[in-house]
Design brief:
It is built from 13 helices and 12 strands. With about 325 residues, it is α/β, with parallel strands linked by helices. Helix 1 links the parallel strand 1 and strand 2. Helix 1 runs parallel beside helix 13, helix 5 packs across helix 8 and helix 9 packs parallel to helix 10. It is elongated and about 70 Å long. The mean pLDDT is about 95.
């Protein structure tokens, strides 16, 4: 390694394009991901930037005395202790906007697939049952005349809402405060919205306030005709309550792209006919992940060369 180049830490794995963008520009130092830092003292003293896909807690931050910037791969950065970083004057960035369309598109696909049981229908065909046993059963639900509530109305939530409009559904939302520029119905509480709608889409980040916010009470309010879709964070859902609600008909169906302890998925979900499951793929296309990787690299390289970043998070002490 050459001391003439800035040292950038990559803990654990990250998109290969990030490393390609760094090649020849910085010295990349790799280390195993985990709750406690695993670095030599020499490396720790050199590192001024971090590119991370996953968690980066206060222990890691405090182990790097010359750290200036942490670039998170993903729009959600709940795994990074941004407040602690800010207290040390360290910039934190994420990758918003470049994945909005992909996540919104996947959300609509997951919603339609869940309501119409398209995966189950394709499985019926692939297993030869169409010819041997006859047509697949009629789907119990439809999008017709539905009321959709979005839990979260940030950038991605607004893109989802725009895509829902041509389906001629009623659209509402719940967030901490009303967005007066939006024409959709605002609900002052999550439960009020769950009582009023029959499709609930969760797109909130993982925070202490949203932790297990989708609980038995909310699911009961959604009702037996209700459909729950989660493309936000698995931590927002009480999975035990959701599994029970699906088993006993408290709600009608669910489509899940994220899970509480992913990649572990509760076994009970796997055998249910009224659940569509995806392995956290909402933004998982080559073009979108490449764009996210470029933004990570742009944030790191921009800070190291010009003391500027493209997408600082709100907690960060400086602006781009």
């Amino acid at each position: 390694m050459s001391d003439s180049k800035a040292a950038v830490l990559v803990p654990g794995k990250i998109h290969a394009r990030v490393l390609e963008r760094f090649e020849g520009k910085v010295d990349v130092i790799t280390a195993p991901a985990g709750p406690e830092p695993s670095l030599s003292e020499e490396d720790a003293q050199r590192i001024t930037a971090v590119a991370v896909s996953g968690s980066f807690n206060a222990s890691w931050i405090d182990a790097l005395p010359k750290l200036e910037v942490i670039a998170n791969f993903g729009v959600g950065y709940d795994g990074v202790d941004a407040k602690h970083a800010a207290s040390r004057g360290i910039v934190v960035t994420n990758t918003p906007d470049v994945l909005n369309d992909e996540v919104a598109d996947t959300t609509i696909a997951l919603l339609i697939g869940t309501v119409r049981r398209l995966y189950q229908a394709e499985s019926h065909l692939r297993a030869g049952k169409w010819e041997a046993e006859g047509p697949f059963m009629l789907s119990p639900f439809s999008l017709r005349n539905r009321k959709v509530g979005l839990f979260g109305m940030g950038r991605i939530g607004q893109e989802i809402a725009k895509r829902l409009e041509p389906f001629k559904v009623e659209i509402g939302y719940h967030t901490r405060s009303k967005r007066p520029e939006l024409s959709y119905t605002y609900y002052g509480s999550l439960k009020e919205m769950a009582q009023a709608v029959d499709i609930l889409i969760c797109i909130v980040p993982g925070t202490p306030e949203t932790h297990k916010a989708i609980n038995a009470d909310i699911l009961s309010a959604l009702g037996p005709n209700g459909v729950f879709i989660n493309v936000g964070r698995g931590s927002s859902v009480d999975e035990e309550a959701l599994l029970k609600a699906l088993q006993d008909g408290t709600i009608g169906a669910a489509g899940l792209d994220v899970f509480y302890a992913e990649p572990k998925v509760p076994a009970g979900f796997l055998s249910l006919p009224n659940v569509t499951l995806l392995p956290h793929v909402a933004s998982a296309s080559v073009p979108t992940r490449n764009a996210m990787a470029d933004l990570v690299a742009d944030n790191v390289l921009g800070w190291l060369s010009e003391r500027k970043v493209v997408t600082p998070v709100p907690e960060t002490p400086v602006k781009g």
